[in-house]
Amino acid sequence: MTEPAPSRPAPTLAPALAVEGLACRFGRVQALAGVSLTVRPGEVMALLGDSGCGKSTLLRVVAGLEAPDSGTVRLDGRLVAGEGARVPPEERGVGLMFQDYALFPHLTVRENIRFGLKGQPPAAREAADELLEQVGLAGHAGSYPQTLSGGEQQRVALVRALAPGPRLLLLDEPFSNLDRRMRDRVREDTVALLRRTGTTALMVTHDPEEALAVATRIALMRRGRIVQVATGEALYRRPESLFAARFLADAAEIPARIEAGRAATPLGAVPVPHLPEGAAVRVCLRPEALQVAGPGEGFAAQVVRRTFLGAASVLHLGVPGIDGPLRARLPGPGPYGPGDAVGVTLVPEAVLVLPDEDDASS
Ligand SMILES: Nc1ncnc2c1ncn2[C@@H]1O[C@H](COP(=O)(O)OP(=O)(O)OP(=O)(O)O)[C@@H](O)[C@H]1O
Q1: How far is 97 from 89, CA to CA, in rounded Å?
Q2: Are residues 267 and 121 in the same domain?
Q3: Is 205 in the pocket of ligand 1 (CB under 6 A)?
């Protein structure tokens, strides 16, 4: 008689990166104050936050360049820092790419890329050449970095970081040295290359637009802590705090209190079922929360200024009872100009109502 097969739990894929309760202090600065974060295999996670909030420190702790005061780091389920473990950076299987690319000026592009492949079989060098080909730089293999454009240098640095086939790629502000025109293209190419190579990545940025463009999920940081982890769309459309809402996009804010499950504004009341009666809130109106029509429709407003952006234009609107102008966005040049009377209505699903962090009584 054959023994029944032991029932095993379905195999679960360990997170590519799991950090738990990380704390890191430099003198009086608490750079990390209890950070927990999980990055799934194949994911591109952005670490988003203001200067000094601890993004680079977190990256350095994951890379092994900094030891945490407490907490743990696991890569593919393997403990590499904390609880007595301290695996050196070169044994973590992690790739690093810095803002300044850190290319060796005295080595050619090919030599730069092969630098991290010493001791690996010839197939690794061939794979690296293939990557160089994929990013369109095969013709520059013999060139020195300083003879390349900023975008080309960025690609060399990316290929160098990817060549050893890291389990996790850590990128610190990888696009900030590029001018705006080039940045969009390089971002797209980078994401495509990460997808093609199936690389898991953790990328530091202070730019919400960049995080939205590149990441599968965003971890928003503030003062050494992570305040929200979500897809870009969820973070943008459903921020859990006023801080998150403000970080992702500018908005006009109207202070209000919840009464009978609603927040009143000079543009009408907004239902707020999820906050308690009497709570002090801010009603945040981003441009997409306002619909503009001719006078007589909705609430009366006046165009103060119009900024033409090409594909769209932004109207700055004065509304009685609201301090400062509201901004609305229209496709193309739009029919309205300064001084025009218009009608404004709220787009309820685009209005954000969040607890007022600045209000001491809430
Ligand atoms: N080696 C260090 N010695 C002393 N203080 C440090 C050190 N590294 C970081 N800090 C401090 O820790 C805090 C977090 O720095 P960190 O570089 O992680 O922030 P960041 O979010 O990456 O900022 P930025 O975008 O400006 O690089 C800052 O106040 C910084 O001055």
Answers
A1: 14
A2: no
A3: no
3-state secondary structure string across 43-56: CEEEEECCCCCCHH
Give me ligand 1 centre to Cα 25, in Å.
10
Which of 19, 26, 172, 221 to mutate to test ligand 1, by most ligand atoms within 8 A of the CB atom?
26
Rounded Cα–Cα distance for residues 279 and 210 (Å): 34
Question: Which of the listed residues 22, 56, 176 should we mutate to test ligand 1's pocket, taking the one with most ligand atoms within 8 A of CB?
Answer: 56
26-62 pLDDT, tens per residue?
A: 999 999 999 999 999 999 999 999 999 999 999 999 9
Q: Whose CA is nearest to atom 7 of ligand 1?
A: 26
pLDDT tens digits, residue range 122-153? 888 888 888 888 888 889 999 999 999 888 89
| CA-closest candidate to residue 160, choices 174, 177, 176, 179 | 174
Segment 170-195 shows an average pLDDT of 86
Q: What total number of domains does the chain contain?
A: 2
Question: Domain check: are 198 and 116 in the same one?
Answer: yes
Q: Based on the domain organization, do 136 and 275 belong to the same domain?
A: no
Q: What is the DSSP string of 246-278?
A: HHH---EEEEEEEETTEEEETTEEEE-TTS-TT
Task: Name the residue with higher pLDDT: 196 or 268.
Answer: 268
Q: Tell me, using a 6 A CB cutoff, whether residue 56 lines ligand 1.
A: yes
Q: Whose CA is nearest to atom 11 of ligand 1?
A: 31
Tally Cβ neighbours within 10 Å of residue 256: 20
Same domain flag for 348 and 214: no
In a domain, 197, yes or no: yes
Name the domain boundary from 179, 203, 237: 237
Residue 92 near residue 80, CB atoms below 8 Å: yes
* Residue 30 CA, ligand 1 centroid: distance in Å: 9
Run of H or E including 231: none
- Give the tokens for residue 202: 């953790």
What's the mean per-residue pLDDT of the chain? 91
Ligand 1 centroid–CA 56 distance in Å is: 7
The residue nearest atom 24 of ligand 1, judged by CA position, is 51
**Of all atoms in ligand 1, which is nearest to the CA of residue 49?**
21
ipTM above 0.85, yes or no: yes
Greatest distance between any 2 Cα atoms in the chain: 91
